[in-house]
Each structure stands twice: as structure tokens, then as C-alpha cells.
């Protein structure tokens, strides 16, 4: 045998040569080209055994041509073979012996003479990386009855490799029928029941026309769902099984070399699938696109394996060539094998380029977002699988372009793929150009995207860019400021990024001094008993305070306002607290909260050096020295840190219990931590108040720390009584010396908490009684010989002190029964002159009623004085409402317990209560009539009026607890007299104010009201923005303001946000506040209607008359979900039951009544039903503020009310184009 016979790639013996050796001597017909070509994956016809070695790919490396050449080569090179070659030969010999000889395949003549031997795709080398486990097709009765390839793939439990191998065997027997079966399989995967025939397969030029006919049949069948997106149980795991099958088809074609030697097979599949990927109907387009992308992904895996084989072959050839005695035959064999694999790789790359140009380039911007997501996901897989081809700018740019997709899910998929790419450090270099080009867009998504989930994922991507040093300093600061974001998901995502910034700042600060020098000056760990000693954590606390202050200042300078502070609530956590919550788990120094407290208690004013000092000790002090404003920030951080620490301590015990590891030792450990925290807090709080108590913001934060103090744990320690007394004294001092409302609110909560704790309840009651006496005496002294009723009669300084005193009364009345203190006549002074006028001394209750009258508008009062007068009247109104609440509660408690002797023997108690109630209601009515419709004090007066009458209505059904006991008729009659309805003028004013609130909110949120809401009488003009000054009580003419209200309403609402400056954040706050005012006022009105104090008689609204219920519910389906939920309380149980019964076609009448229409007419009920049906068609019922919801005035004036019509036209045009079979593509430009 010659040496040429041993070369890889040599042709097998021809049929003529074989025939000469046969005994029969018969001639054999020459096979077609398909059989003549040599396939490395097929079995040779001469049956000669070849020595084979597996590599990382699917192909096998043939070392010699036949056994004789192998023996000859072994003999020639045996003398020069090294130990490694000998081991390799022994291993190959064992493999050859252990490999079973394949059985011969029978030749089947079908006109082509095809004799292709198939190796299943599942026969892969062990060293190939294992792929993700694909869910196996489940055998279902509905799919088992299917025919052909579809049943084999989905209905009979076969794996993708088995189904692909079976189809390939049928292709050997009859390629046309097998191809027809494959095309019908693809059609059936789209949900199409029509099929193609053998003639359609043979007529390649008619494929577009045939697919057009199939689309027409598909549309005539009116199929709305297709398997790829169906939620039906029959199509569970449809997508992974489909992907697995076509991946197996490509692997089988590669293993059998059919992909390279019979390109007609892949060309036929490609032309059908690629043509379907441009179909006008989505089922065809989506399914075909997925199949094409799947085949391209499998080809990328094949290319990667071939690339690995080529690289290994070259290294082996180089190793062989460096030997002293080179085996030339072996080197030549390796070179020929490398050349063959390079040709295969070139073929695969050409196919990939064709598929990319024909399918991906058009479908990555398809009108269907699902298809765009498929393309983005496939591109990410290609880049990670076959880096040498796709990790280039010409392919990466498509991911950057899709970052501007209009659908959040598509943008999220791009970010997901980029995160996977940047996970590999080897990709950072090739991705640098891509990052420079699209970094600004990625930062924009992280800061401004409408979807919090997309923003959070993008921040994680930016964190990896930061680790790769691909971010600019400005970008790092922009992302770091998101620690103040309003979305919890965004704050949680940026926490790690923020802490990394702190670490960099910490390293930069200590770098001039050096770690060794710092170790000698301060310890690394802190001592919980000596938390006043400096540690390394102090430097990080300084970095934290400095960074938070800088980011807060940058936001104020950039936006002109603080977005998170526009909405103010007493129980709202500050932005620093929310930031602390996000970074607590990432910054372990915060768990050492005693060290943070010691850092705050340290006297930083004594530090005179700075960080540039030559002395290391002095420079170190300059590094951790706190500047102005940083103490207040760290106090709020301390407050939330302690809270999170205590929560974490309790949760650790709960988690241990869930895991079955709760032992007595763990219980004792948790108890010890809680006890130690309580002890340290009891020591730290007084020291902090002593140092920072004069600053309102700091005092509020420290008082919140007192809320976390567990008095019961403190009672177990020694000197508990002394500690109680000291804490109560500190709280009392803060309450009596501060006028800031936040300090008063926190001090009130602290007192209420102390009052609810059994160990300190008595001491807290005594302390609160002292506070009542002090405040009332102060009020008496301030108003002595002063006109308490007339507005503008008090000096400015005195007016401020009176307002602050009444504010303390209001806070104290909210947590303590004030009836006894307010009803008792204040004692006169000991001087004789004052003793003579003792009879004229009013009670505190009378004095507060007089102060309420100062809320009546007087145009001669200056603006700043008017603001103080309004504040005083507001505090007095709130205090009086608390008084009536405590009074009604006392009466109800007495009646329930049948302790009514004082009511029977002293009927003047209820008479005086009625008199005070009437006086208070009349005062509120005067304030209401003197102010503009949406003035804040008018809103407060009307809301208080509704609360007052609703409160007294609770006495209507009060009875003794025991059924045998009854109220005496005189007491019952007096109670009934206390429950009158709201006077008609006040009801009219209340409904007018409600209508104005509706219109203001509809205008700000761009919603349309019921036509009857816009009809008003001539003497009731439309509400202008100056009619609704939330925070501004100017008395400008409403008619003149109506002409300019659009500019004032849209430009930033200075009266809403509490300050100047426009912007989208201020406009969003304006919308939210308008909704809050509407819902709060409507809620009080709904309670009044339910309580029966607001009559349901017909009232005139424009040109119609309707009841109060109809009037409230006319815009129920138009103003969002919150407003609808508030009005839902108007439905009683009977109406809800009727609404459920009317769910069917015959229940339309009951459904109209169940919507709160009461006894409305049938036409009105039908109208309400139509409104409900229209509302269901709307895509967004609740108020969702996106970036596009706040538009410029010029654009709004140009567009008018045509926006919705334009959107509908665009959607209809897209559906029409899709229905006409057009190639629906661009939802975004390049």
C-alpha cells in the first residue's frame, strides 16, 4: 500500500474496483455525487478499522489510513518515540479494541442512491462542555395522535437527538418526502393546519407564493393564539423542546458532514424558514425567527468546536515538528486535517453571515417586542459562544441600538445580555469601544427609565463597568446619587455601587498616611464598652457623611428642589434613612452603631488640624473631623441603623426557629443583644440630646431613637427609675422648648410610648399633667388683657408665641385626654386685681373657640402676619377637634358600661357640649364663607365640619353593653339632639369644594370628567389655579386668574411644591397632592353620607338635579383607582350582593345599582355601565406618572386632545399592515 492511501480525506475504493473482487462479477451502478463524496463522520465501505482519537470537537482525528500503514509507521518511528507517544498509542489501542464494530447498513435505492451513515447528535465526546438541561417533551394524548415529525418531537417522549436522527434516516431513504415532512412540521409549530406537498418542495421558486396562500388560509381560520406563546397546558415547554430539536438537527448534520457535503439540505430548510421569517402574520414570523436563531446558535457552537479542534491540531503539528526525528506522515496527516476543518469553519461562517443578514438584521427591530427579545437573546448567545466572529463592533452595535427600544422587556433583555458579557474579564477589552459609544445611554436608562426593574438591572451592569474602570467620574457620581431614589428596588441595586465609592474614598483619604501608620494610631476593631475611642470605622463614617451631603447638594443645585421632600408626612422616613436602609447590609461598619454614636459624641470642635498636616496623628484627626451639617446626617443614619440592627437581631431568632436550630443558647444570645442595646441607648440618648438638642432636625432624630428603647428590658437593669426620670425630663424639655412641628410630633410619640409601658406609666402620666398645667398657664399669661378673637390685634412676636403654645396643646391633646384640662377654668393670679376679675377668666375651651375666629379673612392684615394668624387658627381647630373626640369617647364609654349617673343628674353636661359644638360649627362656617373655594384653611374647616358631625353621629346607636339595660328617655333625647344634619349652606359649600377638587385633579392629570361636571352656573366660574392655592392664601380675583391658570398650573406649581422651581418632579408632586386632597376630602364626605349627616336630597348641579351619591359617583370611573376605592365605601352589603347577582346578561340593571347609583333612573344606570365598559378598555386605570405624562405647555397646546386618536391610528395602521402581509419592522430607527 502506498503512502497516498493513508492520507486523510482520500476517496474510498470505487465501485468498479470493488466489483472486480466480487465472486459474482456483476456490475454495480455508479452512485450519485452524494455517495461519492467522503464523509468523515460516516462509516467507510471497505470496513477497514482506523485508529481514531477524540478531541474537544465532534470530529475525529485520523492518524493513519489503514492498519498496514499504521504498523509501518510505528516500526519506523518506534526507535524515536518518547514516553508520551507510547502512552498515547496504548490508549488509542485500548479505545480501538473497546469500540464495537458497527453493523452494515442496507443500501436503499430511491433514484438517488443515497447511502449516508448517520451518527446521532447525542454521541458527543465527554470532554465537550455540557449544556443546560432541556426539558423533555411530555407525551400527551392530544399530541400523540398527531402525525409525522410533530408527534415524534412533542408527543412520544423522544429527545431532540432521537427525533433528529430518526428524521435524518428518513431523509436518507427519500429526501423529498423528508423535506416535505420538515416544512409541515414547521407549519404545524405555527398553529397552521394546512400542509405543503412534494410538488411544493420541488418547486423552489414558488415558495413565496405558497407561503402567501398559507397565510391567507391561516387568517381565514381566525386563529388568535399559536403554540409559541400559548398558555394552554398542551403547549407547556413547547419552546425549549422546539429549540432542542433544531439544535440537534444542526449537530447531526455537522457530525455526519452533511452540512458541508450536501448543502442542498440546509439550503432547502433555510429558504423555507427565512422566507417565513418575513411573513406578515406574527405566528409565522415569530416561529420561523426562533428556528433560524436557534440554528444559528447551534452553528456558533459548531464553529467554536471547530476552532478549538483547529487550534489543537496546529499545536500538535508544531509539537511534532520540534522533535529530533519528525514523523512526516503524521505531520502531513495533521496538516490535511487542519485544512479540512478550516474549510468546514469557513462554510459555517458563511452560513452564519447569511442568516444574520437575512433574518437578524430585519427582525431585531420587528414590530412585535417578543421577536425583538428573541433576537437580542440570540445575539448575546452568539457573542458568548463564538467570540472570534461576533465580539466585534459591527455586531455589538445592534445591542446598543436596542437599548433605545420602546418596550421595557426588550431593554431589560439587552441589559441582561450585557451583564453576562461583562462578567467575563476577557471581554472587557473588545467591549471598550462599545462602552465608549453607548455609555451615556446606559447611564440614562439607570437614571431615567420608566421601569424600576430595568433601572435596577442597569445599575448592576454599571457596577461591572465600574469594576472594569470603564466609567467616568461624573457617571459614578450620577449613579451614586440614585441612593436617594424614590424606588426601593433602585436604591437596593445601587447600594453596592455606593459602598464601593465609599471604599475608594476611604482608600484615597488614608493613602497619604499609610496603613501601617494608621494601625499604630488607631485599632481596626472597636470595643463596645469603649465606643468613644477612635477606630478605622470613624473614617468611613466621615466618608459616608461627606458623600451623602455632597450628593444631596448636587441634587438641589441640579434640580432646584429636593424631589423626595416635596411630599411631607409625619411618619415619612427621610432620604438619609432610606439610603441607610439600602446600604446597611453592604457596609458592615454600620452594624457597629455604638461606634457611630461615639463618633457623634466626640468633640470635633476641639480638632484644629486638617488632613494635610505633617504630623500623622494630627492629619488623621483632620481626616475624620466632621463639618457643619454632617452631624445631622449621621444622626438620621444612626436612628435607622439602630432600628435595622434590632430588626436583624429579632429576625435571626426567627430564622433559627424556622431552620429548627432554636436553642436556649440562641434565645439567651438574642436577649443579651437586646438588653445591651437598651442599656447603651439609655446612656447615649441623654448625651446626644445634651449636645444636639438645640437643633430641631437633630432633636427629632434623637427622639426617634427613644422610640426604639424597650422599657421592659431596661427595667431588668439596675438604676431603672433614675433612667426613666432622666429620659422623661429630656423629652419634656424638648417638648416645651421647641416650636418645630417635627420635634413636637416625635416627642408626642415618645410620651405615648412611655405611657403605654407599665414600668413608667405612672411617671409618664404625672409628667404629662405637669406639661398640661405649664402650657395652659403660659397660654393664659400670653393672652391676658388681649383681644383673642379679632384678627391682626396681637403683636407679631406675641402672635408667634401664642401659635407655638397652641401647637403644643394640639400635640398633647392628640395623645392625652384633654377634656378635664380644657373645661376647668384657669385659676387667677394671687394679686388682688386679678382676683377681682376671676369670674371673667375664660376656660381654655372658650379661649380656643375665640382663637378659631381669627381664621376669618381680614384684607387689611399683612401677608406675613396673615400666615401666622392662619397657623394659629389651624392649631386651634385641630385642638378643638381632639377635644370633641375625647368627649364623645368618654360619653360612649359611660353609656356602654351603664355608668350614666352623671348624665342623668347633670343634664347640663350634654347641653354645654351641644352649645360648644354649635359655636365651633358656626365659627367654621364663618371661616368657610370668607375664603376662596380651595384655600387650605377653608379645606381644613370643611373637613373638620364633616368630621365633627360624623363624630357626633356615632352616638345614634350607642347602647349599654347588657341587653337588659336601657337608656333613660331624657338622656336618649339629649343624645338625639346632639346629632343634627349639617346645615344646608355648609353642604352646598362642601359639594362645591369637592367639584373644584375634582376639576383641579382632572386638569393636572389630564383626565376627562363627566360632561355634567363641566356645566356650571353663571355665578360659579371654572376653578382657576389661584382659586386653589395650596400653601398660598392670596385673595386674587378668580375671574382674572382663570385666563392665566394654565401657565401657573403647568409650570411647576410653586404653591404646591412649597417653593419655586418647575420641572417634572414638581409637576408630578402637584398631581399627587391634587389626588391626595381629592381623596382625603371625598373620604370624609363619604363617611358623612354613610353617617346620615349629609342628606341625599337632590341638589342642583349646572342644569341637572341629582342626589349626593350620584353627584359623588358620576366621575368614579374617570379619576383613577384610588378615587374609585374611596367611593366604593358608599356601596352597602345589599348593593354589593345585587351587583354579584347581576353579573350575567340579565343583570345589567342590578349592576348599575351596585355601582353606587342608589335610586337613579334607568338611563343614568345605563350611562354608568357604558362608562365602566369604556374604563375596562383603557390600558391604565390607576394614575401612573411616566416621563411622557408631563409635557411642555407648547406641545400640549398644539396637540390638544388628539393624542389618543393618534395612538389609535398608529395601532390600527400596524394591525392593517400586518394583516396585509407586509413586512412590519421598524419600531425604532438606527
From TrEMBL:
Species annotation: Endocarpon pusillum (strain Z07020 / HMAS-L-300199) (Lichen-forming fungus)
Record-level Gene Ontology MF annotations: chromatin binding
Extent of Polar residues compositional bias: 1-17
Biased composition (Basic residues): 89-107
Region of interest (Disordered), residue spans: 1-141, 961-1065, 1134-1230
Positions with biased composition (Gly residues): 1147-1160
Coiled-coil residues: none
Name used for this protein in its record: SCD domain-containing protein
One BP annotation, GO: sister chromatid cohesion
InterPro entries (alphabetical): ARM-like, ARM-type_fold, Cohesin_Scc3/SA, HEAT_SCC3-SA, SCD, STAG
Gene Ontology cellular component annotations, sorted alphabetically: chromatin; cohesin complex; nucleus
Feature: compositional bias, Acidic residues: 61-85, 1034-1053, 1184-1212, 1221-1230
Residue ranges of every copy of the SCD domain listed in the record: 360-445
Biased composition (Basic and acidic residues): 29-41, 1161-1181
Origin superkingdom: Eukaryota
Amino acid at each position: 500500500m502506498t503512502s497516498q492511501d493513508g492520507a486523510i480525506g482520500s476517496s474510498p475504493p470505487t465501485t468498479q474496483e470493488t466489483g472486480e473482487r466480487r465472486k459474482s462479477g456483476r456490475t454495480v451502478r455508479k452512485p450519485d455525487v452524494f455517495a461519492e463524496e467522503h464523509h468523515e463522520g460516516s462509516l467507510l465501505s471497505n470496513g477497514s478499522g482506523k485508529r481514531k482519537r477524540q478531541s474537544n470537537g465532534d470530529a475525529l482525528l485520523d492518524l493513519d489510513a489503514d492498519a498496514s500503514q499504521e504498523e509501518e509507521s510505528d516500526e519506523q518511528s518506534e526507535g524515536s518515540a518518547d514516553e508520551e507517544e507510547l502512552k498515547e498509542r496504548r490508549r488509542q489501542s485500548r479505545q480501538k479494541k473497546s469500540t464495537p464494530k458497527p453493523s452494515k447498513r442496507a443500501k436503499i435505492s430511491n433514484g438517488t442512491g443515497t447511502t449516508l451513515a448517520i451518527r446521532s447528535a447525542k454521541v458527543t465526546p465527554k470532554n465537550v462542555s455540557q449544556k443546560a438541561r432541556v426539558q423533555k417533551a411530555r407525551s400527551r394524548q392530544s399530541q400523540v395522535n398527531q402525525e409525522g415529525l410533530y408527534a415524534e418531537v412533542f408527543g412520544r417522549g423522544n429527545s431532540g437527538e432521537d427525533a433528529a436522527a430518526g428524521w435524518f434516516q428518513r431523509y436518507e431513504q427519500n429526501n423529498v418526502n423528508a423535506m416535505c415532512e420538515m416544512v409541515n412540521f414547521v407549519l404545524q409549530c405555527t398553529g397552521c393546519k394546512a400542509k405543503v406537498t412534494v410538488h411544493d418542495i420541488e418547486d423552489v421558486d414558488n415558495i413565496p407564493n405558497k407561503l402567501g396562500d398559507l397565510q391567507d388560509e391561516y387568517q381565514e381560520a381566525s386563529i388568535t393564539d399559536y403554540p409559541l406563546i400559548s398558555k394552554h397546558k398542551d403547549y407547556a415547554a413547547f419552546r425549549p423542546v422546539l429549540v432542542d430539536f433544531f439544535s440537534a438537527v444542526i449537530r447531526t448534520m455537522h457530525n455526519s458532514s452533511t452540512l458541508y457535503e450536501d448543502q442542498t439540505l440546509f439550503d432547502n430548510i433555510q429558504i423555507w424558514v427565512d422566507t417565513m421569517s418575513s411573513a406578515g402574520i406574527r405566528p409565522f414570523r415569530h416561529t420561523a425567527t426562533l428556528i433560524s436563531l436557534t440554528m444559528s446558535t447551534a452553528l456558533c457552537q459548531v464553529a467554536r468546536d471547530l476552532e478549538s479542534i483547529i487550534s489543537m491540531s496546529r499545536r500538535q503539528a508544531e509539537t511534532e515538528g520540534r522533535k529530533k526525528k519528525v514523523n512526516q506522515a503524521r505531520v502531513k496527516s495533521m496538516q490535511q486535517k487542519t485544512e479540512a476543518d478550516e474549510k468546514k469553519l469557513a462554510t459555517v461562517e458563511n452560513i452564519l453571515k447569511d442568516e444574520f443578514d437575512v433574518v437578524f438584521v430585519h427582525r431585531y427591530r420587528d414590530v412585535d417586542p417578543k421577536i425583538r427579545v428573541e433576537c437580542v437573546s440570540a445575539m448575546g448567545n452568539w457573542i458568548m459562544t463564538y467570540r472570534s466572529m461576533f465580539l466585534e463592533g459591527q455586531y455589538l452595535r445592534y445591542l446598543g441600538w436596542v437599548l433605545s427600544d420602546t418596550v421595557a422587556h426588550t431593554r431589560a433583555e439587552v441589559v441582561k445580555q450585557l451583564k453576562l458579557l461583562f462578567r467575563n474579564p476577557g471581554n472587557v477589552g473588545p467591549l471598550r469601544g462599545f462602552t465608549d459609544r453607548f455609555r451615556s445611554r446606559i447611564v440614562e436608562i439607570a437614571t431615567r427609565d420608566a421601569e424600576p426593574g430595568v433601572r435596577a438591572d442597569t445599575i448592576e451592569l454599571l457596577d461591572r463597568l465600574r469594576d472594569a474602570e470603564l466609567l467616568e467620574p461624573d457617571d459614578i457620581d450620577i449613579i451614586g446619587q440614585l441612593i436617594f431614589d424614590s424606588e426601593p428596588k433602585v436604591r437596593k441595586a445601587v447600594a453596592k455601587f455606593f459602598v464601593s465609592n465609599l471604599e475608594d474614598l476611604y482608600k484615597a483619604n488614608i493613602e497619604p498616611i499609610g496603613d501601617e501608620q494608621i494601625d499604630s494610631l488607631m485599632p481596626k476593631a472597636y470595643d463596645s464598652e469603649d465606643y468613644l475611642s477612635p477606630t478605622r470605622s470613624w473614617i468611613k463614617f466621615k466618608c459616608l457623611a461627606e458623600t451623602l451631603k455632597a450628593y444631596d447638594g448636587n441634587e438641589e443645585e441640579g434640580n432646584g428642589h429636593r424631589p423626595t421632600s416635596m411630599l411631607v408626612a409625619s411618619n415619612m422616613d427621610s432620604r438619609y434613612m432610606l439610603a441607610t436602609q439600602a446600604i446597611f447590609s453592604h457596609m458592615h461598619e454600620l452594624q457597629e452603631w455604638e461606634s457611630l454614636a461615639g463618633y457623634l459624641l466626640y468633640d470635633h470642635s476641639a480638632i484644629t488640624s486638617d488632613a494635610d498636616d505633617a504630623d500623622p496623628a494630627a492629619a488623621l484627626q483632620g481626616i475624620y473631623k466632621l463639618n457643619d451639617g454632617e452631624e445631622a446626617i449621621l444622626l438620621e443614619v444612626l436612628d435607622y441603623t439602630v432600628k435595622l440592627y434590632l430588626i436583624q437581631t429579632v429576625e435571626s431568632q426567627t430564622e433559627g426557629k424556622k431552620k429548627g436550630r432554636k436553642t436556649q443558647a440562641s434565645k439567651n444570645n438574642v436577649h443579651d443583644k437586646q438588653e445591651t442595646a437598651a442599656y447603651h441607648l439609655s446612656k447615649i440618648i441623654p448625651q446626644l440630646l445634651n449636645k444636639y438638642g438645640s437643633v430641631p432636625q437633630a432633636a427629632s432624630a434623637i427622639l426617634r431613637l427613644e422610640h426604639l428603647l424597650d422599657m421592659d428590658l431596661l427595667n431588668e437593669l439596675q438604676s431603672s427609675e433614675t433612667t426613666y426620670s432622666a429620659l422623661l425630663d429630656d423629652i419634656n424639655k424638648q417638648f416645651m422648648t421647641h416650636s418645630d412641628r417635627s420635634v413636637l410630633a416625635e416627642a408626642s410619640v415618645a410620651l405615648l410610648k412611655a405611657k403605654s409601658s407599665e414600668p413608667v406609666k405612672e411617671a409618664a402620666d404625672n409628667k404629662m399633667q405637669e406639661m398640661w398645667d405649664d402650657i395652659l398657664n403660659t397660654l393664659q399669661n400670653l393672652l391676658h388683657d388681649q383681644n383673642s378673637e379679632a384678627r391682626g390685634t396681637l403683636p407679631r412676636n406675641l402672635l408667634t408665641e401664642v401659635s407655638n403654645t397652641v401647637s403644643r396643646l394640639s400635640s398633647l391633646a392628640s395623645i392625652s385626654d384633654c377634656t378635664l384640662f380644657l373645661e376647668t377654668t384657669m385659676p387667677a393670679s394671687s394679686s388682688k386685681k386679678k382676683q377681682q376679675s376671676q369670674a371673667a377668666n375664660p376656660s381654655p375651651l372658650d379661649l380656643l373657640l375665640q382663637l378659631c375666629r381669627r381664621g376669618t379673612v381680614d384684607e387689611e392684615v399683612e401677608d406675613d402676619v396673615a400666615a401666622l394668624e392662619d397657623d394659629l387658627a389651624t392649631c386651634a381647630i385641630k385642638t378643638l377637634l381632639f377635644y370633641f373626640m375625647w368627649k364623645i369617647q368618654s360619653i360612649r364609654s359611660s353609656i356602654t358600661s351603664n355608668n350614666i349617673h352623671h348624665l342623668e343628674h347633670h343634664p347640663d353636661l350634654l347641653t354645654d357640649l351641644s352649645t360648644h359644638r354649635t359655636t365651633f360649627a358656626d365659627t367654621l362656617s364663618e371661616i368657610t364663607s370668607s375664603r376662596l373655594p380651595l384655600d387650605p384653611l377653608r379645606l381644613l374647616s370643611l373637613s373638620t365640619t364633616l368630621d365633627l358631625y360624623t363624630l357626633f353621629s356615632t352616638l345614634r346607636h350607642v347602647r349599654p353593653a347588657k341587653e337588659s339595660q336601657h337608656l333613660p328617655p331624657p338622656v336618649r333625647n339629649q343624645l338625639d339632639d346632639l346629632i343634627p344634619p349639617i346645615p344646608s349652606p355648609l353642604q352646598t359649600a362642601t359639594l362645591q369644594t369637592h367639584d373644584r377638587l375634582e376639576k383641579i385633579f382632572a386638569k393636572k392629570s389630564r383626565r376627562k370628567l363627566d360632561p355634567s361636571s363641566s356645566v356650571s352656573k353663571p355665578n360659579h366660574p371654572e376653578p382657576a389655579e389661584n382659586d386653589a392655592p395650596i400653601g398660598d392664601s392670596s385673595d386674587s380675583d378668580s375671574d382674572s386668574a382663570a385666563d392665566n391658570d394654565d401657565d401657573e398650573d403647568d409650570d411647576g406649581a410653586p404653591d404646591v411644591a412649597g417653593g419655586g422651581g418647575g420641572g417634572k418632579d414638581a409637576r408630578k408632586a402637584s398631581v399627587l397632592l391634587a389626588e391626595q386632597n381629592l381623596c382625603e376630602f371625598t373620604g370624609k364626605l363619604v363617611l358623612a353620607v354613610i353617617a346620615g349627616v349629609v342628606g341625599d336630597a337632590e341638589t342642583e348641579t349646572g342644569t341637572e338635579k341629582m342626589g349626593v351619591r350620584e353627584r359623588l359617583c358620576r366621575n368614579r370611573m374617570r379619576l383613577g383607582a384610588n378615587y374609585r376605592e374611596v367611593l366604593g365605601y358608599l356601596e352597602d352589603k345589599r348593593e354589593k350582593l345585587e351587583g354579584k347577582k347581576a353579573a350575567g346578561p340579565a343583570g345589567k340593571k342590578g349592576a348599575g345599582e351596585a355601582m353606587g347609583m342608589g335610586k337613579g333612573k334607568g338611563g343614568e344606570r345605563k350611562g354608568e355601565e357604558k362608562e365602566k365598559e369604556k374604563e375596562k378598555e383603557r390600558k391604565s386605570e390607576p394614575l401612573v406618572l411616566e416621563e411622557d405624562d408631563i409635557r411642555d405647555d407648547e406641545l400640549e397646546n398644539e396637540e390638544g386632545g388628539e393624542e389618543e386618536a393618534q395612538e389609535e391610528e398608529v395601532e390600527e395602521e400596524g394591525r392593517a399592515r400586518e394583516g396585509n402581509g407586509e413586512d412590519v419592522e421598524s419600531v425604532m430607527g438606527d
